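DM from R.C. (forwarded with permission)

"hey, sorry to bug you on a friday — could you get me a structure for this? deadline for the figure draft is monday and I only need the backbone to look sensible"
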Amino acid sequence: RRKPHQKMVAAEAEAEGDGEASGFKARGNALFAAGKAAEAIVEYEKALALAPERGLRCTVLCNRAACYLKLDDYAKCAADCTAALEVEVRVKALFRRAKAWAALGDVEKAFQDAAKCATMDATNAEAVELARDLKGKVTRKLERQGAWQSPTAKVATRIKDGTGQTLEETFRAGAALATNEGASDFWRSGACLVAAERVVLVNDIQAARFLSACCLASEDQVPLDQLLPLGRMGKERIAEAVDNDFALIIVAANVADALNADLRADDDDAGLIEEAQAPSLEDFVADVADAALGLGGDDKGKNGNGNDGGEKVAKAKAKAAKAKAKEGGLDVLAKWLGPAAQEDDAKKKKKKKKKKGLSASSFSSSERGVDVHRAEKRACERLRKRYASRLAKYSLTDDYDGLWVGLWRLLDADDEKLRRKAQGAVARILKAIAAPAPMGSTHDLEFHEDQADLSPRDFLEKLLDMATTAEVEQDDNGGGGSVSKELRERRRRASLVVGYNLASSHLGAKAQQRCFETPVEVMQLIATKDAVAETLGAEVLAAASACEEGRGFLGPLVATGALEALMSDSQMPKAARSAAATAVSRLGLAAKALKAGAAETGRLLEAAVKLCQEEGGDGDDQRTARERGVEVIASLSGNSAVKEEIAHGSSRLAKKCLEALCGAAGKNAKGSDPVAYGIACALSNVTVTNDELRRRHFREKEMEITPEQYDELMRVTKQKADDDRDDDTEELASARRRKVVLADGASLLARLATSGPPSKNTAEKLAETFANLAKDADLRGTLIQQGGFKACVALASADNTQTDACRTNAAHALAKILVTTNPNTLTDAQALSAVRPLLWVCRQFGAFELVHFEACLALTNLLSLGPEAKRRLVDDKGIHALEYLMFSENKMVMRAATEALTNLVPNKTFLAHLKKPDKLKIWLAFARESQGGSGEDTDERDAKEYVAMARAAGGCLAMATSTDDDELCELVAKEQNAPSTILDVLRLDEPSLVHRCAVLVRNLADDPRSRPILLERIPDLAKALRHAKGAFAQVPLVANALLDALTAVEAPPGRHDDDDV
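My reply, with the result:
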């Protein structure tokens, strides 16, 4: 430690040093002021050498920095400012360093210092101006560097400029960013064009993957002008790329879509590319499909025995990759040569024209409509010829035989998914090139026509020629090496028939006749014990029975009983048995040979039940068997005796048919499943009589003849035998409906209706069945418990997805349920959800009057729930819908609509509606409408309906005038027909009407505003009330109401004012 005298000596020395340093600083300042910056630096260095205290040191460093700045020595200036700022933060040091950084070109650092300086001293105008100037420079620099660009724009810039990362890494980053918006940026910027060039030049896999990601993320058609380089790629390079990666297949599929869009473009529309450029891209798509479909099988024998575990895994991966590539190749082929239905294109074109501004009046006249239809027809024919010409280009030359060989091979692939895709590709190609049949033909598409381009027959011959190609002899089915060449060819022929049948049953029959000389060959195919052959043979049998030409082909099998034997043979596979059962049912129904009690029908029904209930086996095989079993049951369910057998069973059925039918859907059934339609059809038929079905048909067609008259006409003309009489009754149908509900059929139907969603045809049948089941009042509670109510709401509320018939039947089922169900037993959500569907069906003027009647009754019931139900109906514009039905020709509908509206009181919107001009006049007229029942043309039932309608209208007026709405009372009293209505009703002998009229009079007399008007307009009102009171003296309720009304009318004028005080 220093001693006190030592500390004193040190302090004196330091003070002396600071004083000396201050002297050097003062001389430096004088020199700097004289413009001698270099000499000033020397003095400042002397001052710093004396190690002055912190404040002085900071000042000297700032001053020397100013000298360096003046001498343009910016680096030393910045260094002195930094040293000064380490001692103490000063505005001058920041400002001078900002200038130095700016001079050195580091505008970011300069801006930071200038901004901080301006913040510390906002009055320093020079610092503020410098900060503003530097901010502009920093912004411009960052813009040049792309700092404000999105990640996709940065990647696009790097792809085009080839800067930053390696292109491989850049393409990988771009593929990751290729979302919908990202893909749009890449297409607009031209990055995809660069990627396409890279694919062509060096077969860059990452560039191809980048292109495929952009294609997948694009919502619209890909810009073909960005992909034009791919047309120069060549077959060999495409084959190499497809063999290495899947990406190019995705690109080709999108190019095919875009080419088809270009092909479908109107003549006056601008195409996506020049017409001369299209062939190169078409060749690219063809080459990709050729390469994908021509890939080898499982590479047997290439790598030794394949006993090594890693080798087996590698082989399995390679096989899976090639299967995926073939699947993609089939997608490319289907999109390129078999695009979406032309009908959809016509619809899109129509929408496009509407968007362009064509008014509806442009198509208002029938002549113009015919012209538009003809133009669309010509456009479809022109488009068909273009597709046929494209197919001819690539099939009439040997250059692309590999493509058709690949398709031919995959027609009998062991992988069912690949096989189905190959059949689907054939069907789509046929739909695109086949000419429509002339009007009046029994078929839809022509098999052959005289034309320069390929017809379906020519395409069939082209594929059959592939059987003789040397390449086909190679095994390419991944595990099909044990299959003989002869069997493989027969399998492919059968699969080809299935593909043709998918396009059209007529085309399928023609292909069947060409591929198989006799049906025995099909039976032999089924008997081979080969799984693929059995499945394909069964599908040929089922397809053959679908049209008249095919049924003739199966004639020998029917004559020998081979089909029935196959159907009943438990040793045969499910697919074969189910196909045989389907064929037998179709053939029998077509020939009208299946009678309810016939042995053939019993065997067929038993076979169908077994197919629906059998367990085990392959999932797809089991599903197909169930679908066909359900189809057979549905086809037989049109016969009344068979309906009884389905519902109640019989001695010839070992298992119950109804349980089998309901179980065929499985636990995870959806409405979109193919089996759903068959189940819905069968249950719809079982739950109704054929007589009711015929009556519905006659009503829908608005036929002037009755079903009974039609039957008599058929018997007289001997078109219907006496033994064809239908003995089904409504009682039998009711018993069957009970069986369906007890078998949880309603629960199954609800599951099908609320999942999937169901197709339009399936939904229509489901709604029809629910309407049938809701006929029985004692089943309606069970329907609600099993989810039928919720399902009907879903079916009736599907605005644009279901047909009007479906929605009407579903709403009718809801109405039936709600007519007899206490709405308080439902949840609020359940009850209120039915309001909108019921109102919708009330607005359907073409619906049956019974539907309108029961819908109004259901709404009346729902409105008793309270204000929320009333508000829901009003919000859905239900007042106008019900008011329209008040003028129905059917008196029951009129009464039900009036009652429903009456239940809206005291809803304020409805009361406001009543106060509109002429509304009260209508209700007063309806209140006295009971007299309409006295006419000669009115029967007793209509007379009762008139009274009920008048009762509802009178009740509405009585309740409405008892509310706090004084204006309404005044308007009723002022209404022109009010006096005559009141007096006429008081003279009636119907107690309920007189009672309501008495309440109305009392309400009007109690209201201060309406009372004087009422008494002035009806001076004999008291007399009329006394007379009515005497007439109903024995009816206490009415007599008391009349007494109250009389008391109110005869009360002193000032009584009401006193009461108010």
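R.C.: lifesaver. The chain is about 70% helix and 0% strand.
me: no worries. The radius of gyration is 45 Å.
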